[in-house]
Amino acid sequence: MTEALQVKGLTKIFPDFTLDNISFSVPAGSIMGLIGPNGSGKTTTIKLILNLLKKQSGTITVLGFDHIREEQKFKERTGVVFDTHFFVDEWKMADVEKAMGMFYENWDTEIYYKYLEQFQINRNKSVMELSKGMQMKLMLACSFSHKAELLILDEPTSGLDPVSRDELLDILLAYTKDKRHTVLFSTHITPDLNKVADSITFINRGKLLYSGDKEGLTDRYFIVSGNSRELPPDIKDVTQNIKMYPDSFEALVSRERLSDLSGLQIRHASIDDIIVFVSKGEV
Question: What is its EC number (predicted)?
Fold first, then answer.
């Protein structure tokens, strides 16, 4: 198996939002970042993968299993980390171990306590007494303790301090080092992508804009800038992604349309640039 996760033609229709025909795949042994502005459809995509929401159309294969017909099989091998924990607040670490052990055939108590020690999680504390960073580590410890081959994380570093965020990213890098474990994580924090992601999938307003390696996205777009008096009158025919300042402007332009503009300053767009511009317009 070369793909740990395959999503094809995924569509989900809500009264006020549509996730429209999303397709991407995550190679086994890699880390993919799922990016996009808030409300773009990242969490919806993850919930559909996990069969927490019912799709209108499309196919999802997780670790070679159909995500509906073989849901139990793929979830046995998949770890999930949301931005808030899913434990009872009053549980102590032994309570967590007992509950999780009931759900997973491959649960290993020895590995669980090994990771508690490695992550410096006080086993005598309750879940609600742990910091948010420690709660994230606890969810990871549980995932590792049932020998998950795939980790799916929804905004795992949101709200973490810089030290905790860096520690979490190091854990993900170590997890995939053997090229047998895979990570899909959603984020809006681009330094996280720069540090750990091999590839990215970019969703905006429910539509897929890009899926592939990081360099492929930044190579596709450029920032053009100049004095506001130099703003080409037909620039809106080239791009709708324009930011105006008192005396200057910046615009996000695709490589294909770059030749339509001349006499302006040009630089490669960063992932941050692309997310900011796209959230305010359309590519």
Answer: 3.6.3.-
